What does this fold into?
Amino acid sequence: MTERVAIIGAGPCGLAQLHAFEEARKQGATTPEVECFEKQSYWGGLWNYTWRTGLDEFGEPVHGSMYRYLWSNAPKELLEFADYSFDYHFGRAIPSFPPREVLYDYISGRAQKNDVGRFIQYNTAVRWVDNDTSGSGYEVTIEELNTGNSRTEYFDYVIVGTGHFSIPNVPEYPGFDRFPGRILHSHDFRDANEFVGKRLLVMGSSYSAEDIALQCKKYGSGPITISYRTSPMGFDWPDGIEEVPQLTQMSGSTAYFRDGSTREIDAIILCTGYQHSFPFMAEDLKLTTSNRLYPDNLYKGVFWLDDPNVMYLGMQDQYYTFTMFDAEAWLARDYIIGRFAMPGYTEREQDYRKWREYETQLDGAFDDIDFQADHIADMTQLTDYPAFDIDLTREMFKQWEEHKDENIVTYRDHYQFKSPVTGTTSTPHHTDWWYALDDRMTTYIGDGMQKTQSA
It folds into this structure.
């Protein structure tokens, strides 16, 4: 009897998993029956940009946190698929820091190459996953959102690829209820032009706060105040952006901060992170973890410790993204098709504890990068994932961190990064990022662009 695999989500993680199975099938391996359930109307996960916020057309919480003018905040070479290079997709070298439309086109190109869309059921929400009554598989209850019809199917394996950047963490501060301006989480941020001329308070001290503050300033907001809870990001910000300690309260439009200073504010953007949330998973299968490099209760960062037939992809705090998702997907696939022998619980727990101990010894971004690179290398050496120069990626990640420290406005203008797949050096972009206000793919690459894969 053919085994069945449920994949929840058709974002970068789910697409990586579908691609991994297809690569094995093309090599002659016997692969299981695969069904992928995607709540949105097309693949891409967070990269599937939508103008919608709040609820979608079916009354479901909007998954996407993508905003209009997002550009990659790390070199594309650090997320390049080992078996599908940027050179191959675009037919030539391109700059290192693409806007979202370019990256979405790249993700879609590989998915189209293997026609993985035939396994995806769109506009389909997973409502509940639990052990079936026999104890040998899982009951997965789904709802077709455009019809309202529900059904329960049975699977031998469940792979959760929904990500963890869609359920916002929304704090409250005194005075929020009487603030006369707009308060929104970065999950609902879509267009910096909304805040032209506005005095902004951006709350947070990580990538979203950094990028949204810069983007809003780039498109005409200001002045912009960034408040941090524990420590500042500490960049040499351009004029019109400053960091201050944590907000204590709002009084009307006046913000009061822990250092005693005040600012007049027109709008507040909460860049306060996201929650790992899986309300569709039964309690004994549900991942509960903080945002960390090695999540709780996952062997190899993928397999549910107590039941490795349940797998989670992309649940780590991330430096690496697409590359890591691929490594996880290949390992999950090889376990399911019998190429990777799953050790017993004691050995799994010992391995898990070893990595958690390693995580406690990390001290700063460079250590974090090496940790995640080591984790990827650990997974890929267990599978036939195509070779790429992972040590080169470590080096480039650290160069990127140094470039940001040197100048937070110009770090995206660097172009000396080399592909870890082809060795090609990226090309300079025709316009410095600070002045590149048009993020369309044709503007970024040029109207004469010739791609290997049609979108």
